[in-house]
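Researcher: Structure prediction, please.
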Amino acid sequence: MSEEHAKLEEMVTLYKQGLLVNPKDARKRYQLAAAYEKLGKLELAIREYEQARKLKSDHFGARDGLGRIYFQGEQLAEAVAVLKEAVAIKPEDAGAQNLLGLAALKVGDAGTAAAAFLAVTRIEKDEAEPAHPDAPAQGGEACVATERWEDAVECFERALALRPNDPALLRPLGRAYNRLAKWEQAKRTLKALVDQQKSEVEGWKLLGEACMHLGDDEESIEAYRRALDLDPDYLDGYIAIGGVYEHNGQEQEAHNSYKIALRFLPDDGSIYFKLGRCLRAMNKPDEALERFQKASTILREDPEVFFALGQVQLELGKAEDAERSLEEAARLRPEHRPSTSRGASRSRGSTSRSRGTRTLRGRPSRCCARTTSTRKCSSCAERA
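Model: Predicted structure follows.
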């Protein structure tokens, strides 16, 4: 028996004698539990920690010790429960917060893990060599899983300060910037990623999205094309490129890109709608009508589809059909109703969608041109 072991056994005896005098002494219960833990007598340690926990509702050490033993023994649900109590008592304890985060991750509780690792990140934010250097990255991942984008950025920025230019951090940070519409930061971060890893498919996709929102159309198209080269099954890339072209009035190029997407997604009503929009802008109302009619059979609850269908029917002199389509648009979205009365008196050649008079208002927005009236880009969809 080592000298340290003998000393611990002696302390156990003393603590037990003290508890005979006052069995409700939470401090001695905790000290006895800590001695048992050091001796490796974990069942006895758990028993005494639990006693101390019951005797004193704000005893941090008892809960921290229990959490530590439960975690080591893979009793993870129990570890999470007592560690939550521990950090409620002492939220500034980075060790308890980190252990809670690890236990929560193992039981699939991303929300608790995110909060715990974020706390560690903030507690140790000014330390050059933090005791828990992996906590910021783990916190960022947990925050992404729970869509806490601001917190994810805080964690990943700290993680990058500790591990500069790590591609495993640049990708999720860029994604978080995109979700927050921080396009400049996203572009800078994602360019750093793809400069390091030319085959980073997700990085190119996210970069294309950021550049699109910034109006950097050539860079956006190039990024989406790089993503398509690496992942030919990335069909949204064709839709995205089409959206950039369409926003800039390059309807033929947009039409070509949408047609490629349609080849692989023949039942996607949104693509028929986009094709109709392009054809109408290209002064091909007969072909536009065919596309809008197809879209209306798939997107039966989309007022924009019926409104566009009604408008092109008016252009073609199909007044009765137009009235039915515009009434359906008004039913689905009442604000379209005034348009029906104005539209009924239009002649085929007077529409504001003719090439010579088409205004910016007639164009799709930079973002949602690239998806549909019913589908948004990934960032806008998550913010909606």
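Model: Residues 3-21 form the longest helix (19 residues).
Researcher: Thanks, that helps.
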